[in-house]
Amino acid sequence: MNIFRLTGDLSHLAAIIILLLKIWKSRSCAGISGKSQILFAMVFTTRYLDLLTAYISLYNTSMKIIYIGCSYATVYLIYAKFKATYDGNHDTFRVEFLVVPVGGLSFLVNHDFSPLEILWTFSIYLEAVAILPQLFMISKTGEAETITTHYLFFLGLYRALYLINWVWRFYFEGFFDMIAIVAGVVQTILYCDFFYLYVTKVLKGKKLSLPA
Amino acid sequence: CHRTKVKDEL
């Protein structure tokens, strides 16, 4: 465990908690893509099935359980508890355009043709693109609440830190996982445009709004 | 392709 990996995990955790608290405190999930949150719940579920087959560490097990628990709680808040505030009219990204190709790709390009391994690969590929419905929603409405942009920032920061972690692990441990690295690079690139807006607007105290 | 047997990352 290096510092980039640890801060990456904590940044991921911060993103998840920020989103949960935002919805809980404001009693509203306006501006949040429920579709992205369902995709993230699918990502965690398919990736952490190894909770049942392998024990790595107390840290590893607890973080996995927290991630899964929080992501299901978020989906519950959006689709049940605060359903009346859910902005479904703007959450119109067609998720089958992500899930079907990603499912096909995980069958074709994987480390090992076994059920758990294919599901793990599926989760890696799906995570890379799971934020697209949220970004699509923001581009459609042309704006995002500042707290939502903090959520996106920490989510993107997590992946960027993981990239540095992989460079570190390659040099010091000779470790690399091509599937995770390629998907991680794609995922980080998707956040670049957002990072630019975050730094030039949100950090200067302005609301994130896109030109009409 | 090189990979770890145990997936220790989240």
From TrEMBL, chain A:
Chief location of this protein within or outside the cell: membrane
Q: Does the keyword Nucleotide-binding apply?
A: no
Tell me the Gene Ontology biological-process terms attached to this UniProt entry.
protein retention in ER lumen; protein transport; vesicle-mediated transport
Give me the segments passing through the membrane: 65-82, 119-139, 151-172, 178-199
The record describes its membrane topology as: Multi-pass membrane protein
GO CC field: COPI-coated vesicle membrane; endoplasmic reticulum membrane; Golgi membrane
UniProt keyword NADP, yes or no: no
Annotated signal sequence is none
**Keywords on record:** Cytoplasmic vesicle, Endoplasmic reticulum, ER-Golgi transport, Membrane, Protein transport, Receptor, Transmembrane, Transmembrane helix, Transport
Q: Where in the cell is it found?
A: Cytoplasmic vesicle, COPI-coated vesicle membrane; Endoplasmic reticulum membrane; Golgi apparatus membrane
* Recorded GO MF terms: ER retention sequence binding
Domain of life, per UniProt, equals Eukaryota
Family per similarity comment: Belongs to the ERD2 family.
The name on file for this protein is ER lumen protein-retaining receptor
